[in-house]
Design brief:
Length: 302
């Protein structure tokens, strides 16, 4: 393709990227302020220029071909580069400004992220932030999210990842509960105690622990199952039994001694653990504002 031909289909590349991100001509048209038929014609023109089919069209859905998926990645880089050009004055000025949308798990957003975002906003008055607190996985392309915070042991492929902090699950109970029940010296002792599982599936009652090279599993019972860490914390403090919590949720209760860590020499092997990562689409063109926010979070949580 000649240089002039490349320049002539730049708008079509942007339109194709929006169709790939939103999954339909109609949604892309709404985002671009045009009509679905105009969007369809632009994609067809791009396919004609390239000589390949990018999208498989059916009456119910659109699906990218293998070539279309490869083109989506390259078009994304193209748009990111163009956006970076628009950020050049801001980058030279060195002052973060503009809008950033962030998603994070609810507990992490409440106990860790919220206060740090308030600090960032106070430091940079020309920045606008939107925080989406959700425990559901977010599609950043479809939902317009610039930065995702995810707690995991294995960051997902396809994203740039920066580790912010390690996250561990802490087994704890209220002092009054422990005083009124048999001592706990081994995970197997938990079978005789009231525990507070998540209750999302049957495996949530199978608690696994590790000490060195030794692993053990115990099936726990309890009168109250709840899949929200703040509510499990309240139930534990009310004396309903033992629960596991992310360390950042349990920290204040442990510090003021309203809760006591149980079996501190054992590591709880739950699904929610590993590290908190800042995830964003990989690109050489990261805006100064997003870079400043990631650096702020990393420095605070180091």
């Amino acid at each position: 393709m000649s240089t002039n031909a490349f320049l002539s289909v730049l708008p079509e590349m942007v339109t194709f990227l929006r169709v790939a991100e939103f999954g339909s001509f109609s949604a892309a048209a709404r985002q671009l302020g045009t009509t679905p038929s105009a969007v369809s014609r632009q994609v067809f023109r791009l396919e004609k220029h390239l000589g390949i089919q990018l999208i498989l069209r059916t009456t119910r859905q659109l699906r990218l071909t293998a070539a279309g998926d490869a083109a989506r990645v390259r078009c994304g880089e193209l748009v990111a580069a163009a956006q970076a050009v628009m950020q050049v004055p801001q980058q030279i000025a060195g002052t973060p400004k503009g809008s950033i949308c962030i998603s994070a798990p609810k507990a992490f957003a409440r106990h860790v992220l919220h206060s740090l975002l308030l600090q960032f906003l106070a430091q940079w008055p020309q920045v606008q932030l939107q925080l989406i607190a959700t425990d559901h996985e977010v599609d950043p392309f479809r939902e317009g999210v610039d930065l995702m915070i995810r707690v995991t042991r294995h960051p997902p492929e396809g994203f740039a990842a920066r580790e912010l902090m390690q996250v561990e699950q802490v087994l704890c109970a209220a002092p009054a509960y422990l005083a009124a029940h048999p001592a706990i010296t081994h995970p197997s002792d938990l079978a005789a105690h009231s525990c507070l599982p998540l209750g999302e599936d049957a495996h949530d009652r199978c608690w696994r622990f590790r000490q060195g090279d030794t692993e053990t599993e115990v099936v726990v019972q309890g009168r109250y199952a709840v899949n929200h860490s703040a509510l499990r914390l309240e139930a534990m403090l009310a004396g309903l039994g033992l629960c596991t919590l992310p360390d950042y949720v349990a920290r204040h209760a442990l510090e003021n001694r309203s809760a006591v860590q149980v079996l501190p020499d054992w590591n709880f092997l739950g699904n929610y653990g590993g590290s908190a990562y800042a995830l964003y689409p990989p690109s050489r063109f990261v805006s100064p504002t997003l870079r400043a926010l990631i650096d702020h979070l990393a420095a605070a949580l180091e």
